[in-house]
Amino acid sequence: MAITYYYAGISQEFSDIIQNLCRNLIRKGMYIMREGKKRNKIVSLVLAAFMMVSVFAVATPQQAEAAGELSLKGKGTSTATISDEECWGATEEANFIKFKSNVTGYVTIKISNNSSLVSGGAYGYITLNKSKTSALGQTREYFDTSKSSVYYTRTYGVKKGSTYYFKVESVGGVKVKATVTSLNKGSNTSRGKAKTLKQNKTAKGVIIAGDKSVDWYKIKLTKKQQLKLSYSAKTNGLAVSNSSAYCTSGIKVTLCKSNGKPFISGSNNYDAMNLKYPKDTTTYFLENQYGARSGINPGTYYVKVERYNKTSSGYYTLKWK
Hints:
- This protein is mostly beta strands.
- The chain has 3 domains: 3-64, no CATH class; 70-182, Jelly Rolls (Sandwich), CATH 2.60.120; 191-320, Jelly Rolls, CATH 2.60.120.
- Helices cover 14% and strands 40% of the residues.
- The protein has helices at 12-34, 39-57, 88-91; strands at 3-5, 62-64, 70-72, 77-82, 95-100, 105-113, 123-129, 141-144, 153-158, 163-171, 174-182, 195-196, 202-207, 215-221, 227-235, 239-241, 244-246, 251-256, 271-273, 279-284, 286-287, 293-294, 299-307, 314-320.
- The longest helix is centred in the N-terminal third of the chain and has 23 residues, at 12-34.
- The N and C termini lie far apart (62 Å).
């Protein structure tokens, strides 16, 4: 429905909407304060909302129409925009951005500030959904556009032809930019179908959101030697508690013996990559009782790459150095 406002004054209907917006912002400010956000950020947010009334009071006549459904393109790069007036912090309703992938691969989401009200930049939560009511990724991943890229960049593995929804709950307007990269999902989903990993060659793979399959690689050592593996990942999963961010999702890498069992015994027998620690290198060796190191025995070894938990997905690289 269109809303009309006039020079030297505003209509009662528009005034009511602005007042409701301010009340919503105050409520959100109280919630944010309980979560540990800085008081001056909330005060700036509320005062700016009240300033909107005086700005609109001297505006030239025009109409503001309700926005249509937000969407992102299934290939290449595209952006969806959410304004201060449309955001969750003002309406108490989440924004859903539809995305249907034209390729199998991964989509990288970058969230940038589009708010003139929130001091420092908009922040909030994003969830990858398979429908508007069912989450596929981590529920309510935290983002903050005023901090480093770890806080506003996410990567998800996607399947060609599948439709996804990004549920955005932001305090302040944001721009959501999607970059889609094509990468075929390999058939190496079992140890018997493991792909040979050659030394000094980089393997690339994708973990599809909602897919519990595992990627397998095999390495053949012809002599006793130390085995050095390097890996990196672009993934998702960030939460916040008491103003401290921590990762809840990621991609696991496990070196296995020829029988498929982990090379390292115990529960901590794998390496994990996540948003805060996207790269790692591990050297595998044998050690005697005096601490002297030697290479591992020749033979066939396997590398298993999988999601850290059911909310994890993304892109990875693997290299035998």
